[in-house]
Amino acid sequence: MRLVLANWQRQLTDWKMKSVLVHKEGRLVAEWHERGKDTIGPLYSCTKSILSALIGIALERGDLSGINQPITDFLEHPPELGEALSRINIAHLLTMTPGFDWPDFDKPYKPFRASDDPVRFVFERPLISEPGTAFAYNSGGSHLLSAILTKAAGKSALQYAKENLFGPLQFRAARWTERSGVNEGGTGLYLYASDLAKIGLLYAQQGSYGARQLISPDWVAQSTKLHHRGLLQYEPPIYGGYGYHWWHSPKEHNGHADCYFAFGHGGQYLLVSPEHELVIVIRKQVTKRNDAMLSRRLIFEHIIPALT
Description:
With about 300 residues, this protein is an alpha+beta fold. The chain has one domain: DD-peptidase/beta-lactamase superfamily (Beta-lactamase, 3-Layer(aba) Sandwich), CATH 3.40.710.10. The chain has helices at about 10-15, 45-60, 80-85, 90-95, 110-115, 120-125, 140-155, 155-165, 195-205, 215-225, 250-255, 290-305; strands spanning about 15-25, 25-35, 40, 175, 180, 180-185, 190, 210, 210-215, 240, 245-250, 260-265, 270-275, 280-285. The strands form 4 sheets. The chain has a 7-stranded antiparallel beta sheet, with helices on both faces. α2 packs parallel to α7 (about 140-155). It is globular.
C-alpha cells in the first residue's frame, strides 16, 4: 500500500510542511519534500530522543554502568550543593523528574543557553521537589545528560553517535551545536529527514539494523514505555506521557493508535506506532506556537487513517 502525498500538495504547502516520510512494515510508502528533495535541517527537541538512544548504547557498551548512578559521579558541581545533587541520578534526567525549579514549557531555556557555564546554571536552580516525583520539561537536564555521556565516553555526543549510531546507519550528514565542548543535549542536532526515519525504523525493529544490534531490545522497550504521566492532561493533546526522553501516547489519549514519538519545536515529529508498523517523520517550518498541532493533525487525521 502506498500513500500519494502529492494529492495533499496544497494542504502540505499551506501548513508549511517541509518533509513528510512514511514507512509501513519497514517499507517506504510515502515521501514528500517542499523543495522536491530531502535537505538537512534542525530537529529541535527531537534531539532529546536521539540522546536517549546514545545513553542506551553507552549502557550496552559499558561506558555507563547504570541509570541509577548519581549525576555527581560525572559532573563538577559546587561543593555546597553536593549532598542535594547526589540524590539526582541519570534516570531522573531521562524522565524529566530531577526536581529543579524549571517552570513549564522550558521557560528558563533562554537564560540557560546564554549562560557562560550551562551545567552550573542548571545546578544553581533551586531543588523544589524530591527527584523522581514531579515532571517538568527541562532542556537543562538534557544538557546534563550530554555532559555525562561526554565525561563517561571521553568524546562528544556527536562523535559517539557517528561511531556507534550514525555511522552504522549510514547517515548522509549530521551537525550538532555545542557549548564548551558539550553538544547541546536538548536541541541542536541537524539531520536529513530520511536519516531521522532510520532511527524510527531502528526502534521499530527492536534496535537491530541488518545483521547488527545497535541498541538493546530492552532499552528500546524501557525508554519508550510510560514512566511518568508527563503532559497527558495537556490540552490540546499534543504531547503525552513521558518515557526516557521519548513521549508516550496511548490510543485512548490520541484516539487513533498506541505510539511513542520524538517531538521538536514547531511540529517536528518522529513517531513510531508498533501496532500498525508505522514510522512517520514530519519536518515543518516553525511558525506560530499552536501551529505544531498541524503536524499532529496530519499524522492522526490523515496518515494513520489512510494506512490502517
